[in-house]
């Protein structure tokens, strides 16, 4: 059973169906890709999973529990974390403090006993940010700021991590290191759901890929299956082949 599941999720904005009957899952220890052209509904689906957007129809489940009506904070407590397409960081705080603040919130809202400074150091080391820990986020390249968002999400000890275009703004070298980080996190058991326009990265990392077009899933499968799918090739107009 997938750890995270959407069942028949539909989101309508007036007459526009942004998400259309989407049923997908993300499994523990796996990276699941979600790709599709601009406006296909990827971010709206993420917003529905995390509770920022109410679905018109359908359900969201974690570990078999229906969370459709839970507010975002309760979903976070069940192990859901995300990053945003537009970076949502405190620019005038250091990298360390941006990560640490998630631990402070966690401590204030749960009874978990955690040594926040120690955990912050562990996460900074794990994500390869130790060398820039004391710099303000505004002083580091965008590509590394994307990793700070992931590090902050990891501070909440998630079971499911949703990443919205995490590699955008990264250099080739940064993306390579980032791919290693995501693989390692999945190997440790995290369920990762990845929205990303960098198709070679998606093809390299994901066990399963779902392709959205006009809100609907038009193909699901392994990277090899997706690359061969005529529907997918047609959806990426002007592209001879995917990736
Ligand atoms: N709050 C909103 N109100 C009205 N329409 C919206 C809203 N949010 C998204 N939409 C519309 O829903 C559709 C899906 O948008 P969404 O941002 O989810 O796509 P996306 O696949 O994430 O695109 P991108 O790759 O460009 O980020 C688009 O037609 C968009 O204009």
Automatic annotation (TrEMBL):
Electron transport listed as a keyword: no
Keyword Ligase: no
Annotated Pfam families: ABC_tran (PF00005), BCA_ABC_TP_C (PF12399)
GO molecular function per UniProt: ATP binding
Keywords: ATP-binding, Nucleotide-binding, Transport
Residue ranges annotated for the ABC transporter domain, each copy included: 4-239
Name this protein carries in UniProt: ABC transporter ATP-binding protein
Organism of this sequence: Actinocorallia aurantiaca
Classification lineage: Bacteria, Bacillati, Actinomycetota, Actinomycetes, Streptosporangiales
